[in-house]
Amino acid sequence: MTSYSRVALVTGANRGIGLAIVRSLCQQFSGDVVLTARDAAQGHAAVQQLQEEGLSPRFHLLDICNRQSIRALRDFLLKEYGGLDVLVNNAGIAFKDDPTSLHFQAEMTMKTNFSGTRDVCTELLPLVRPQGRVVNLSSAMSLVALKRCSPELQQKFTSETITEEELVGLMNKFVEDTKNGVHLKEGWPLGKLVPYSVSKVGLTVLSRIQARKLSEQRTGDKILLNSCSPGWVRTDMGGPKALKGPEEGAETPVYLALLPSNAEGPHGEFVLEKNVVQWEPGVELPPWLEVCGVL
Questions:
Q1: Any idea which residues carry the catalytic annotation?
Q2: Among 30, 130, 219, 283, which lies 20 to 30 A Cα-Cα from 178?
Q3: Predicted local confidence at residue 1, as pLDDT
């Protein structure tokens, strides 16, 4: 029987929090770490940067919006490693002060942050070995959006029985509602970065559904899957005034990625500053959300 090395993989990892997560995993994870990016030149440059620091990540091309690209990565993992031990879904986009229409922003943001991540999970979750760890990078903005949704949408998004198909329907409806200019009337939130926030609501809820499925279908495998917020981080997305550097932003995702093999949880939770935060509209929001001007 072939003995494969353990392997951890991070999406959208050529800069910012993703790069910091790869760096930390290279230092702490006992196995290979694969850095992925949709731009080969930027990905190789990131790998070279880490090599100069004495670390040894591998690179693989990945565009999470391209199913063929995801399947090529899946085939690589199966051939080289026979599976996957840690998956960190970090890739994501946000439009800031952008002149394009709200509908265009909603469509593009949802395509990447929700649908792209979901496609990665569809292809790669079956590869995750027993005691594997899966981390989906959501955002505290999802809590803001949940709080601002209509009671009807809040009930749907916090339901313990919502299905993946129902969630996909809701995310598609949001995009369609922005196209028709009825998103506020239909109960979607008002505020800055609404497409980003709603896409992260989708990702947080998707994580809850995925964790539930793993518990039902792979009982005893002790796979732990969670969503988390890295906090407000100084990146292209977070801006220069943010409270944390990328290394600090990586702390919670890496903590979840490296939960010990005998850990019972967290599982299916939303985690902020290494603490589980209840996924409910009445939850107290972190004070820095006011400072960063999103409320």
A1: 196
A2: 283
A3: 45
